[in-house]
Every structure is written in structure tokens, then in C-alpha cells.
Specification:
This protein has 144 residues and is α+β, with helices and mostly antiparallel strands. It folds into two domains: 16-62; 65-143, Roll (PH-domain like), CATH 2.30.29. The chain has helices at residues 16-35, 40-62, 122-125, 129-143; strands spanning 9-12, 65-70, 73-78, 82-87, 93-101, 104-112, 117-120. Helix 1 (16-35) runs antiparallel to helix 2.
Length: 144
């Protein structure tokens, strides 16, 4: 590794996020038990929603690192918990998309790799997408 190149960096989900999702799943089950009143459909729907939320939390625990960068390229999460390596020549664009709806602005980091587009929000990265985009652009420039 070139001493001039920046060290590898990673961005991951905030540590409290999977815990919050698991607590939410428990709350859904509790509410289902409390308000179902013997109705199996309501209880089943609450259990299904809780299972989906618990699965989402499991993904955060199994694959907390969503994005990593080093002098050779970017590694992104792919599928449920897989990884995909994108060498710098495969990365066509890195940009931040901003959308305002109902007075709220949401930022999404977009990494365009030709045939694939990888999207990351603030809670995927535990950092502002604009800051991460700047770090990726700097790493790409340092790599040559």
C-alpha cells in the first residue's frame, strides 16, 4: 500500500439501531397479544410484522458494515448480508441525491457501477451521506 494513500475506511449502521428494531418487534408482539382479543388474524399480522422487523434487525447484526473503501475500490453490501467488490474503474459516479417532501429533506448516497446502483441512507452509514461522498471522492483521487 502506498504511504500517500488514505487508509481503508468503513461505514456501518449505528449500534443502537438493531436494538431499537428488536424492541419494536417485541412491542408489536405485546400489542398484538393485548389487543387481539382472541382474533387470530390480528395476532398473526402483529407476529408477521414483528418477524419482519426482527429479520431487518438480524441483517444489521450479521452485516453491520454497509460500505468500505480502500485504495483499490469500494466494497458494498449486496443482498441480505453478502458483499460486492467494486474496483474504481467500475464505479461510474458517486453522488448525493437530495429530496424534500413535506418539509423534510432526505439525502441518499448513490454509487453507480454501470449495471448496478447502490443506495445508502444516513442510518446505513452512521454519517451524513455528503460526508461519506467526500471521503469516497478523496479516496478515488488518491488512488489515481
Amino acid at each position: 500500500m502506498n504511504p500517500q494513500s488514505p487508509p481503508a475506511r468503513q461505514w456501518r449502521v449505528p449500534p443502537a439501531l438493531p436494538a431499537a428494531k428488536l424492541v419494536g418487534a417485541l412491542v408489536l408482539v405485546a400489542l398484538g397479544l393485548l389487543f387481539a382479543g382472541g382474533d387470530r388474524v390480528q395476532l398473526g399480522l402483529a407476529a408477521l410484522a414483528a418477524a419482519a422487523l426482527a429479520g431487518w434487525a438480524l441483517r444489521d447484526l450479521v452485516a453491520p458494515v454497509r460500505l468500505a473503501v480502500d485504495p483499490q475500490g469500494i466494497t458494498v453490501i449486496h443482498g441480505f448480508a453478502g458483499r460486492r467488490r467494486l474496483p474504481w474503474p467500475a464505479v461510474e459516479a458517486i453522488r448525493v441525491e437530495r429530496r424534500t417532501r413535506r418539509g423534510l429533506t432526505a439525502e441518499t448516497l448513490e454509487i453507480d457501477a454501470g449495471e448496478s446502483l447502490h443506495l445508502f441512507g444516513r442510518y446505513d452509514l452512521d454519517a451524513p451521506p455528503e460526508e461519506v461522498a467526500e471521503a469516497l471522492h478523496a479516496a478515488r483521487a488518491a488512488a489515481g
